[in-house]
Amino acid sequence: MKVIKTEIEGAVIIEPRVFGDERGYFFESYSARWFNENVSEINFVQDNESKSKYGVLRGLHYQLPPYTQAKLVRVVKGKVLDVAVDMRKDSPTLGKHAVVELSEENKRMFFIPKGFAHGFVVLSDEVIFQYKCDEFYAPGHEAAVRFDDPELGIDWKIPAEDLILSEKDKKHPNFREAILL
Ligand SMILES: Cc1cn([C@H]2C[C@H](O)[C@@H](COP(=O)(O)OP(=O)(O)O[C@H]3O[C@@H](C)C(=O)[C@@H](O)[C@H]3O)O2)c(=O)[nH]c1=O
To answer: pLDDT by residue (tens digit) across 27-84?
Structure first.
């Protein structure tokens, strides 16, 4: 397992050690002991999975206090561009984002601490996306930022006409109007 820093303090990429043999492969997708020693002392309490087709963009989502969530995200099938936007009001990188390509090939995971808005876009025909959260879903405390706010300047890598968003995700506020953490 290797920890790779991103341009934003706290948001890190995790590269698992993959054991390949004639049967296929094996890797530890999560070890509480390793994670607590090498990344952060976290108690994950919920696992989620979503399936999406090419062009689907989910984001940029977060939960408000007291239900802020840290997330450990990965792709089981396909490929995404994964983005975390720093919403921490006291952070020197407030409003900046980290981008990571996650795929079934590179098997990378992305750890997004509390204080970030998160989203991804699907670059392959289909994606199965899995993630762990350290706080339960709190529907009354959902918050979000527009994926295409020019102030954030995120390059989603696929043409705007290919994007597929939920009705909810089309209506989020810009970063300037969003609630900071
Ligand atoms: C996130 C979530 C949704 N739901 C329900 C609510 C809704 O009816 C249905 C679909 O929810 P959404 O449209 O919000 O799903 P989605 O757009 O996939 O939301 C997710 O996006 C990514 C980018 C994240 O970072 C996640 O934290 C989460 O916000 O699932 C739960 O029951 N539990 C959950 O934890």
So the answer is: 999 999 999 999 999 999 999 999 999 999 999 999 999 999 999 999 999 999 999 9
DSSP per residue, 81-116: EEEEEE--TT-TTTT-EEEEEEETTT--EEEE-TTE
Distance 48 CA to ligand 1 centre (A): 8
Q: Based on the residue annotation, tell me whether 67 is a catalytic residue of this protein.
A: no
> Is this complex's ipTM strictly greater than 0.85?
yes
User: In the CATH hierarchy, which top-level class contains the domain 43-177?
Assistant: mainly beta
What is the rounded distance in angstroms from the CA atom of residue 160 to the CA atom of residue 158? 6
Catalytic residue among 30, 61, 67, 141: 61
- Ligand 1 center to residue 53 CA distance, Å? 16
What residue ranges do the domains of the chain occupy? Answer: 43-177
Counting other chains too, the contacts that 18-26 makes at CB distance below 8 Å and 24 or more residues apart are 18/107
